[in-house]
Amino acid sequence: MKSMKIKIGVAIIMAFAGMGSTGAAFAESLLYVFPPATQLTPGILLRGSVELSTSENKVCAVEGRVTFANLTCQSITISDGLVPQSAPTCADPDFLIGIPGCAAQNSDITLFTLSLRAGNGGTASLNLSEVEVLGEGAAVQVASRGGDYEIITINEPVVAAPEPTASASPLAENGIRVLTSVEPILEENAQEESLAANILSVFEGGDIWMWLFILILVIFGWYAYTTKKNR
């Protein structure tokens, strides 16, 4: 980022802080993403934040850029009480944020929060780049740390359709039989066809004349019996 941008930011912070002296830097401050790691599913919302740990430094302004990988930015909100010279947005995630009065040593500050939607299965990340931190008129050594996430795709089990089974046919309100399964009807038809085939096989054999002769004898015997009985 342009150094002019830093100078303008420093001037604004000094006005709020009411200080012009140069402070000494003792240890690295840390600018980091929270949460640092987690598991997500595709399409779920991740609510994260960018945090500042000042360590042994007084910090008056923070500059940098947010980068997204396999995450879709939904919104970015600056924390109350901070003065953004350049507020980050989803379309332009560069930021330069002033801290009125400067943050004290060993302080932890939430600079802004983010709402992000997880992408496809795999990995995703939320990182910081081009990070600079200003103290009371001097640059402060700073380290940055992003967040790495795992997006897990959950496969729903496929439920097989149940096989049709024979069941009793209920009666509708008008007493008409309701067809619930074709299997019982097919079985009944098969039994009727089998009975007809058995009867037909008797007459198709070579003994048909013998059966006719026996039938005539039975009829003649029955006629003779009834005639004799009636006399």
How would you portray this structure in words?
The chain crosses the membrane at residues 208-225. Keywords: Membrane, Signal, Transmembrane, Transmembrane helix. Residues 1-27 form the signal peptide. The chain has 231 residues and is of the alpha+beta class. It has 2 domains: 3-151, Sandwich (Immunoglobulin-like); 183-230, no CATH class. It is 26% helix and 38% strand. It is built from 3 helices and 12 strands, in the order αββββββββββββαα. The protein has helices at 3-17, 183-204, 208-230, and strands at 29-34, 37-40, 45-53, 59-69, 71-78, 83-86, 94-103, 108-118, 122-134, 139-140, 142-145, 147-151. The strands form 2 sheets. Strands 2, 4, 6, 7, 9, 10 and 12 form a 7-stranded mixed beta sheet that branches. It has a 5-stranded mixed beta sheet with strand order 5-8-3-1-11, with no helix packed on it. A hairpin with a 7-residue loop joins β6 and β7 (94-103). The relative contact order is 0.18.
